[in-house]
């Protein structure tokens, strides 16, 4: 394992039975509080963004905002928030989905995505893939191209990668860590 992966892994805390019994929650707040780790993470994701030739970064509320916004700045790209339903004031596209511990609906401002865009989606954790899948569906419905999906951590045992194959349609899924 490379040094950066060891550093990132060492700053993610496992919290048993949160937010419900049987879930091991991957808490990234220790990583965010460590400037060396947060910078290394931002740099690694920005390198992925440059490799995908993305024109914009989409961040998934809420932890995808924390990771995606500095990556967009570092890579010189625009940032688009995909929010939980009811939070965006303009005309939106919406998509319902299920995740490891519940269900929800996400939205994006329709005007933020155009057919000229190549979008890299950024989030902290890929679990069942429900959230990421909904975001990719939103991007395609808006007519934009999916450049890829990049996450800090993939929970391999939940098989999100396989679920996402159709929605990715050949675009890369990059996970800095897989557990
Ligand atoms: O692959 P899935 O099963 O869809 O789960 C992954 C999603 O779950 C978490 O978000 P959550 O909805 O808990 O929101 P938060 O970032 O606001 O805490 C995480 O940040 C991902 O977005
Ligand atoms: N186990 C987990 N830890 C952190 N975020 C998550 N999102 C979905 N499952 C999660």
From TrEMBL:
Enzyme's top EC category: transferase
Catalyses which reaction(s): AMP + diphosphate = 5-phospho-alpha-D-ribose 1-diphosphate + adenine
Complex formation: Homodimer.
Record domain Phosphoribosyltransferase: where: 31-154
Species of provenance: Streptomyces olindensis
Name the UniProt record assigns to this protein: Adenine phosphoribosyltransferase
SUPFAM superfamilies in the record: PRTase-like
Main location: cytoplasm
Function (record text): Catalyzes a salvage reaction resulting in the formation of AMP, that is energically less costly than de novo synthesis.
Family statement drawn from the similarity comment of this UniProt entry: Belongs to the purine/pyrimidine phosphoribosyltransferase family.
Pathway the protein acts in: Purine metabolism; AMP biosynthesis via salvage pathway; AMP from adenine: step 1/1
Keywords: Cytoplasm, Glycosyltransferase, Purine salvage, Transferase
UniProt subcellular location: Cytoplasm
Gene: apt
GO MF, one example: adenine phosphoribosyltransferase activity
Annotated EC: 2.4.2.7
């Amino acid at each position: 394992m490379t040094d950066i992966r060891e550093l990132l892994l060492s700053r993610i805390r496992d919290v048993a039975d949160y937010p419900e019994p049987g879930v091991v929650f991957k808490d990234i707040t220790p990583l965010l509080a460590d400037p060396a780790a947060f910078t290394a993470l931002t740099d690694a994701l920005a390198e992925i963004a440059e490799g995908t030739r993305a024109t914009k970064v989409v961040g998934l509320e809420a932890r995808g905002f924390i990771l995606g916004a500095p990556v967009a700045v570092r890579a010189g790209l625009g940032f688009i928030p995909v929010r939980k339903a009811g939070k965006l004031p303009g005309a939106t596209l919406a998509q319902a989905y299920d995740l490891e511990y519940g269900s929800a609906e996400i939205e994006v401002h329709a005007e933020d995505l155009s057919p000229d865009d190549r979008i890299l989606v950024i989030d902290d954790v890929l679990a069942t893939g429900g959230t990421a899948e909904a975001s990719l569906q939103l991007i395609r419905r808006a007519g934009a191209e999916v450049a890829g999906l990049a996450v800090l951590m993939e929970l391999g045992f939940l098989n999100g990668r396989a679920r996402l194959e159709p929605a990715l349609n050949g675009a890369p899924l990059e996970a800095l860590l897989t557990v």
